[in-house]
Amino acid sequence: MKTSYETVHRRSLEEPESFWAEAAEALHWDRKWDRVLDVSGGQFVRWFRGGRLNTCYNAVDRHVENGRAEQAALIYDSPVTGVVRRISYRELQREVSRFAGALRSAGLEKGDRLIVYMPMIPEAAIAMLACARIGVVHSVVFGGFASQELAIRIDDARPKAIVTASCGIEVQQVIPYKPLLDAAIDLAEHKPSVCVVLQRPQARASLQPGRDRDWEEMAAAADPVDCLPLEATDPLYILYTSGTTGKPKGVVRDNGGHAVALSWSLHNIYDVQPGDVFWAASDIGWAVGHSYTVYGPLMHGCASVLYEGKPVGTPDAGAFWRVVSQHGVNVLFTAPTAFRAIKKEDPEGEHLKDHDISCLRTLFLAGERLDPDTFHWAGGLLGVPVIDHWWQTESGWPMAANCMGLSPHPLKAGSAGKPVPGYDIQVLDGEGRVLGPGEEGLIAVTLPLPPGCLPTLWNDDRRFLESYLSRFPGYYFTADGGFKDEEGYLFVMGRVDDVINVAGHRFSTGRMEEVVSGHPDVAECAVVGARDELKGQIPMGFVVLKAGVERQGEAIEAEIIQEVRKDIGAVASFKKALLVKRLPKTRSGKVLRRTLRDLADGRDYAIPSTIDDPAILGEIEDALQAY
Ligand code: COA
Ligand code: AMP
Q1: Co-location of 471 and 504 in the same domain
Q2: Fewer C-beta within 10 Å: the chain N or C terminus?
Q3: Ligand 1, atom 21: nearest CA belongs to which residue?
Q4: Is the Cβ atom of 370 under 6 angstroms away from ligand 1?
Q5: Which of 477, 510, 542 is where one domain is finished?
Q6: Ligand 1 pocket, mutate which of 310, 363, 387 (most atoms under 8 A from CB)
């Protein structure tokens, strides 16, 4: 019988130290911790202080030594290249230890940073694990980000090395990565001393002598190296995520808390056992890819599917069912937008008839709100529980879910489930008062955060405090809004800041505004997230031109769209730039973004009492209609 969720949740909050110490027993420690929870640093809380372990050892070598050497660790499935490759734990150990040796011989030491800018190929995971093996701090940058975004991250992380591939493949389009990387290094102030390039046959990259090295040659020449025991509190990686300003936040993840939280979650939230096949269909550039394509499933001795393809178009809307059936996937985790894309192309689920997916036990969805339509459609089609669960890059693992490894509770459409053990989630009003059932407000987590959550932001303790801990003393502020119902189910309704969620990807509208404002004809602009049936939200720019600009509006709009694509990346899906005469503002000059959002969505709106000139709203409605 499964343990009661309520009992476990209560215990995790009442006795956090013994609770997490027990969970930590699932891992191999080179040295036990001195303190499970160290609060001596005030707001900077650390888990497992004094403990030593190696994340790569726990994710790879341990399984080779304990009877899983020949079991698949990674299953690389790439419909865009026609390759399927099964990598056993033994092979993974060989490749990771060799690449770690190559990094060492290139001069990388514990504490150095290394950026991974790669598509969804096994070498991306190998590079991450190789860093973990020797204490190099990796920072994976999503391959869809353009040079300028990469440059911003290079300057913040100051990596000694960057690992890339010659190209990525988007459905049928080959995208050379190396020119993007070269441009980013030109733009950045900091220059890495070495770039390692994996040459793919679809497009080979030219290498810059002295700086660039060929992956294959380096790995072939290297001696394998062993895992280095690290402090539990040493950083494992930095993952940049969008904040409300143009500068992304470098979320830091430590080794000990991360390993404990992920291995606990695999068993208790996802209800998977060692040997099961787990597939998180997310790019490794996002938090889901870090936690549930690479580290989590490997830490738990599962086989993890690494998929280089899309839910539709590679080649059709049956792609997910083919992968599930071919590799015996037991648990699938993706974003609701992927299911909306499948539903749009194959509403009756005709493709499912071609595949036996009886191996699939559960579908988990996250990254954006799971709308009730998609929840019902997916459940009806697959006949397995469809679990919405809520988390953020900052937490690194779910904060609310239906814990399938504990006693699950009945599903409710529209809810992300109940607080996961370790998280005491409260809904607050603007003054920090706890709201009651059904009252919508701001979602916060009582401190201390459980293991695995960010201990700070890279090189920016102050921003960590200001962004998350200052607004409501005693709480971590999530910047999401929502409510809890009478039974304690959490409903997450969306961000309350200027972060938007496009196809499960997080973007800063502030960053897009920076790019749009950089156009020479633009006087001012506002970018908001407009509702989109497929992607949940897409950005929409409202743009005011400088007085006297007489060029054709359409040409300027096209240039602005191209600028965002060039500076941030096509993945931002910035395709709408609407020229307006003025922006709606308060009398004190603040842009009324919420009203702009309502206008973009065609929703009824109340005229804000603070508005400077209500006539502007009519002008914008007209412009939207004409667009
Ligand atoms: N490298 C280069 N370009 C990329 C890229 C990458 N890694 N990833 C996406 N892009 C480009 C796409 O080619 C597309 O370009 P286009 O405007 O020229 O067509 C643009 O960025 C938008 O891409 P995408 O968001 O993938 O939209 P899409 O319309 O091609 O596909 C979905 C829509 C819903 C199928 C797709 O967004 C999807 O699979 N989403 C799931 C997201 C996910 O797993 N999120 C997990 C986070 S938990
Ligand atoms: P990211 O940091 O990219 O994972 O994005 C985190 C944000 O995605 C959260 O702050 C939410 O706004 C949104 N999000 C993630 N999962 C869910 C969910 N299950 N329901 C609602 N919103 C979600």
Answers
A1: no
A2: N
A3: 571
A4: no
A5: 477
A6: 310
Last residue of a domain, one of 413, 446, 477: 477
pLDDT at 606 over 90: no
Q: How far is the CA of 608 from the centre of ligand 2 (A)?
A: 28
pTM above 0.85, yes or no: yes
Sign of CA dihedral 89, 2, 280, 23: negative
Considering only CA atoms, which residue is closest to atom 7 of ligand 1? 144
Mutate to test the pocket of ligand 2, among 443, 478, 501 (most ligand atoms within 8 A of CB): 501
Q: Is 522 found in the same domain as 472?
A: no
pLDDT digits (tens, 9 = 90+) for 534-565: 999 999 999 999 999 999 899 999 999 999 99
Strands 161-165, 113-117: pairing is parallel
CB atoms within 10 A of CB 518: 12
Residue 604 has pLDDT above 90, yes or no: no
- Do 468 and 507 share a domain, yes or no? no
Tokens of 437: 């059932």
Pull the structure tokens for residue 434: 């706890």
Give the position of tokens 């992607």. Answer: 535
Predicted confidence band at 245 (pLDDT cuts at 50, 70, 90)?
A: confident
Specify if 482 maps to a domain.
Answer: no
- Smallest CA separation from ligand 1 atom 20, residue: 571
Q: How many domains does the chain have?
A: 2
Q: What is the span of the domain harbouring residue 511?
A: 499-626
